[in-house]
Amino acid sequence: MSSQIKDQEVAAQEEIWQFILGFTATVVVKCAIELGIPDILKNCESPMTLADLVSKLKCPESSLYRIMRFLIHFKVLGNEDSPFEATHGKDLWGFVATNPSHSKFYNDGTACDARAGVWAVIEGFPEVFKGVRKLVDVGGGDGTTLRLIVEACPWIKGINFDLPHVVSIAPACVDEDCVAILRKSREAIPQDTVKVIVVDVVVGREDDHEFKVRD
Ligand SMILES: C[S@@+](CC[C@H](N)C(=O)[O-])C[C@H]1O[C@@H](n2cnc3c(N)ncnc32)[C@H](O)[C@@H]1O
């Protein structure tokens, strides 16, 4: 089956599911209003946890969790500022830049995640690395992902691109580079010899129904 026909079939399936389950949003919002959730949140004096809401409404926690997740995901409820920014007065990257211990904690966590997950890409999709001579890991943290890839594919030259406070303490076995080189390389290198490899979890996007590898 051609990928175009497959995409059309997936789109058609999504449309059918939309017809079948399209009533869900209306029902969840009705349920939230009947429970009085918007009023409770509007009138509370300090931030409420899910447990606070459960004890106030005497609802099963798992059901209330699903209702709240739905309302927040579809932006029926929510703040303009992220909770993190509201608490710390800056975004996560600004915060870790001035908190070295938190930065290390964060980098060690993402490195741990990379050690567990990057093999799925190296072993599951080895073809994406064929013909790649230089690989820039954008937001590559302490370089763990890049190091594993370069070890498995020694023909690749790795460039770890991240914020100065992260790159400055990353182990030195990967090359470091700067924003200008990254921007220029995208313009300068011929399209047929460049691959941008994105490995991430995508939530709430039209094409989030499949795990895709894109060049
Ligand atoms: C979720 S972590 C990913 C870490 C790594 N790629 C991995 O999978 O283990 C996102 C990374 O993006 C970096 N980052 C955030 N803003 C950035 C920016 N403006 N320029 C470069 N890197 C940035 C952070 O420092 C962090 O290391």
Describe the structure.
The chain has 215 residues and is mostly helical. It has two domains: 3-78, Arc Repressor Mutant, subunit A (Orthogonal Bundle); 105-193, Rossmann fold, CATH 3.40.50.150. It is built from eleven helices and three strands, in the order H-H-H-H-H-H-H-H-E-H-E-H-E-H. It has a three-stranded parallel beta sheet with strand order 1-2-3, covered by helices on one side. Helix 10 links the parallel strand 2 and strand 3. Helix 8 (100-124) packs parallel to helix 9 (144-152). The chain starts with a helix and ends in a 27-residue tail after the last helix. S-adenosylmethionine binds next to helix 8.
Order of helices and strands: HHHHHHHHEHEHEH
Distance between the termini: 20 Å
The figure for the number of domains is 2
Radius of gyration: 23 Å
Portion in strands? 5-15%
* Name of the CATH superfamily of the largest domain: Vaccinia Virus protein VP39
Low-confidence stretches: 208-215
Return the CATH architecture of the largest domain: 3-Layer(aba) Sandwich
Summary keywords:
single chain, 215 residues, mainly alpha, Arc Repressor Mutant, subunit A, Rossmann fold, 2 domains, flat, disordered C terminus, binds S-adenosylmethionine
In short:
By secondary structure, this protein is mainly α. It has helices spanning 3-21, 24-35, 37-43, 50-57, 61-73, 83-88, 92-97, 100-124, 144-152, 164-167, 179-188; strands at residues 134-138, 157-161, 175-176.
How are the SSEs placed, and which strands pair?
Elements: H1 3-21, H2 24-35, H3 37-43, H4 50-57, H5 61-73, H6 83-88, H7 92-97, H8 100-124, E1 134-138, H9 144-152, E2 157-161, H10 164-167, E3 175-176, H11 179-188
Parallel strand pairs: 1-2, 2-3
Bound molecules: S-adenosylmethionine.
